Amino acid sequence: MTSKEINELSLKELDVKLREAREQLLQLRLRKQTGQVEKTHTIRGIRKDIARMETTKTAKLAAAAK
Fold first, then answer.
1. What total of structural domains would you count in the chain?
2. Which of 35, 43, 47, 51 has the fewest CB atoms found within 10 Å of its own CB?
């Protein structure tokens, strides 16, 4: 996901997307341990997406608090 797409999501949608991304990351990590992942760079991409979503979520919560 791009930063622009993430910024357009509501807080509830962000929570859902974060949960899905974390589940996907967990599955990829487990599959990596068993040697089933061919494209290990996807793990890094998902981690970056999670960081982008967390940053956007924090910014939106701070803006809502003001």
1. 1
2. 35
